[in-house]
Amino acid sequence: MYEVSGKTAVITGAASGIGLGIARAFAAADMKLVLADIDGDGLDAAVQSFLDGGYAAIGRRTDVRHEAEIQALADAAIDEFGAVHVVCNNAGIGIGGAVEEMSVDDWAWTLDVDLWSVIHGVRVFLPLLKAQGEGHITATSSMAGLTCGPQLGAYHVAKHGVVALMDTVRAELRAAGSDVRSSVLCPGPIDTEIVRSSRRHHDGDALDSAGTFMDQLESTLREGMAPDEVGDLVLNAVRNERFWILTHPSHLALAQRRVDQIRADHEHRR
User: Fold this and answer.
1) Catalytic residue among 109, 116, 125, 155
2) Nearest Cα to Cα of residue 174 among 241, 84, 245, 87
3) What CA–CA distance (Å, rounded) separates 146 from 185?
4) From 69, 97, 179, 195, which residue has the greatest number of CB atoms within 10 Å?
5) Strands lying side by side in the sheet with 57-61
6) pLDDT value at position 224?
């Protein structure tokens, strides 16, 4: 079991939603917090809430699309607390639209935030964890990283990439005999503001070809699991050094259906 008390955690997308839920779970476990988000006002409020509760916390506004800002986040964490032990690459957005209707800018924004930010996080933080000989690095994917469906093509591509990246990290750490561990979080419906926030921060033209779909998705998320429950699951996985973190294990039936289809298509050709 990995002892987290007194250790330092870096969490991106920490001003709200799953990131804030993870931060609350880590704070309750006596961890020091380094919180990052592009929403400066929300980040300041989150940090202040932890300081008011007597927890050790700092915040740094970070645009996770840029590796230089992730590096600056790591530098700030080390300057303040001397080390980093747990890293949660959690920042994410989601915009809808049919594959052929999404602009190149829409694709780039989704991949930059949902996938490249995790690549940057691994490149910056993993060497630090390996050098100190301990730690845990996680990334937030989605059940959309294990399944596919309409109107979220760019999101599916990015989240599949996160699963592949973190599973590769796991394999490489194991092959190296490292004591550093990795995890991937694949949430189902969680009560967050990701749809509304994504629409608010979207730099390009609003995508309303999927407007009804996204409205329905937002409604579904409101009925989802509380972010604080997700935070507890992540904490448990870090402590117990588990790779897969699933909020809705029953949804694996969707992934199994995909495997069954692959097998059926293969057998049909024989």
Assistant:
1) 155
2) 241
3) 11
4) 97
5) 57-61, 32-37, 8-12, 86-89, 136-140, 181-186, 244-246
6) 74
DSSP label at 145?
Answer: G
Q: Which domains does the chain have, with CATH numbers?
A: 8-269 (3.40.50.720)
At 223, give phi and psi (nearest 5°).
-95, 5
* Residue 155 annotated in active site: yes
How far, in Å, CA of 250 to CA of 85, rounded?
Answer: 31
Residues 27-32 have a mean pLDDT of: 98
Cα(236)–Cα(238) distance, rounded to whole angstroms?
Answer: 5
CA distances to 64, 142, 144 from 43, rounded to whole Å, are 14, 23, 27
Place of tokens 């992934």: 255
Please say if the pLDDT value at position 61 is more than 60: yes
Range with the lowest mean pLDDT among 6-15, 139-148, 206-215? 206-215
Above pLDDT 70, what percent of the chain?
Answer: 88
Residue 221: its pLDDT value, please?
58
State residue 208's pLDDT score. Answer: 46
Strand partners, 140: 185
How do residues 135-164 score in pLDDT, each as one tens digit? 999 999 999 999 998 888 999 999 999 999
- What is the rounded CA–CA span in Å between residue 247 and residue 133? 29
| Residues 91/19, Cβ–Cβ less than 8 Å | yes
What is the separation, in whole angstroms, between the first and last Cα of the chain?
47
pLDDT category at 199 given cuts 50, 70, 90 is: low
Q: How far, in whole angstroms, is CA 89 from its chain's centroid?
A: 5
